[in-house]
Amino acid sequence: MATDYYGVLGVARGATDTEIKRAYRKLARDLHPDVNPEPGAKERFQEVTRAYEALTDPEKRRIVDLGGDPFDNGAGGAGGFGGAGFGGLGDIMDAFFGGAATRGPRSRTRAGRDALIPIELELDETVFGAVKDLTVDTAILCTTCTGSGAAPGTHAATCTTCSGRGEVQSVQRGFLGQVVSSRTCPTCAGTGQVIPEPCPQCAGDGRVRSRRTIQVKVPAGVEDGMRIRLTGQGEVGPGGGPAGDLYVEIHERPHPVFTRDGEDLHCRVTLPMTSAALGTTLSLKTLDGEEDLDIRPGTQSGSQLTLRAHGAPRLRATGRGNLVVHVEVTTPTRLDAEQEKLLRELAALRGEDQPESHREAQGGLFSRVRDAFNGR
Predict the structure, then answer these.
(1) Which of 87, 230, 242, 271 reaches 20 to 30 Å from 359, CA-CA?
(2) Number of other residues whose CB lies within 10 A of the CB of residue 31
(3) What is the spatial distance between Cα 55 and Cα 70, in angstroms, rounded to a whole number?
(4) What is the mean pLDDT of residues 268-295?
(5) Which neighbouring-strand residues pair with 270?
(6) Which residues contact 4 (CB under 8 A, 6 or more apart)?
């Protein structure tokens, strides 16, 4: 009578490979002779091992499902723990850890790295946009071998160390049986290929360093610290792989007149107190050209005047920011006799002068102005 291998592992006949492996792991941990000295543990361990081998090999499991025994008359190979391992299934570590993953050789062609380069721009260039020529020193495709890394007329060959697998295996015996470990092939670095005759231009890398000039279109409205992405303008990858991206980082130089706050520009103008009191019209030089700025009579120091749509363009929207003009009113520090006389008369007309006794005792407004003008 054929052995009920499903019953040995305690799983249903329709169990998946994952369920079979999980059941075997549990039984193997409990029954292994090195951890279970009880009589019969070794035989029981060999039994569950055979059941595991029978149910994880598709052909042997088919024989089991047909009512036969894959191990009768040598069918399916001898196997069993302590023999040549699990037939073609690998050793016991395959059950515990899923076996050594077959990664296969990796490609010699890999994507290139991204690159970052700063660029300094004037304020008007960030506001209105610009086209700049940028010189970069980076890796480009080798024109001699077109990225293959092999000298002209030659080609890459299969690595004899790993037979093209990209990895080498070593087998060690332990208390759980044969332990198979894999590592990257040291000869081909995991590619499965070697280059007998490297390209004399790139030494087999498929790329060379070169200085080149590219054109960068700076959009209107960029700000300090922003980055412009140039797709495919970075370094070419090893083996002639696709180039990475080039990021251009904007550094805005300080402007002698204007400062920037997002979309808005700011500047300062100074007015004599007479112009601020009487009002005037200033000719203000903006980034767009000369503009007339109306100063209303009675304008105070610290006032802000706005020229709309004279700032920076909105980068991801329509329209422009504003130019905010900060007004500072200056007061003369010294007056001659005639100027002082006129100011006294003005103060009297405006009722801002006070009797001498009050001026001296209380430090009236006019006396404070007079003292300031005379530098006291």
Answers:
(1) 271
(2) 20
(3) 10
(4) 94
(5) 328
(6) none
